[in-house]
Amino acid sequence: MKGLLIVIQVTRLEPTDTNPRTAELVQWTERDQIGRGAILSALSNMRFDVYCSDYYTAKSLWDELDRKYNTEEQGLKKYYVFKFMRYQMVEDMSVAGQTHELIQPRACPH
């Protein structure tokens, strides 16, 4: 990581314009690229291929990932709560077996 920071500091773009707005834009662009790269590096190869070209800013990429995966996680939680609320114990099976069946992680059947 230290090597990456050195490269970033050495190759920093210096605005030739003295306009403070231009300097702010250059600084924002650099930070956005670092953030976007950090998010993309945390994705699997398959997901990287999907998200690397469609989202140009770190915020748009983060918002899309949050929208997609946070929604899926909430749907899965609702499924497990519904399953728990409907669950009834049966007499011909051990309590441990029934508990394992209830909490066994599975994909949501959609």
Automatic annotation (TrEMBL):
<dbReference type="Pfam" id="PF14223">
    <property type="entry name" value="Retrotran_gag_2"/>
</dbReference>
<protein>
    <submittedName>
        <fullName>Uncharacterized protein</fullName>
    </submittedName>
</protein>
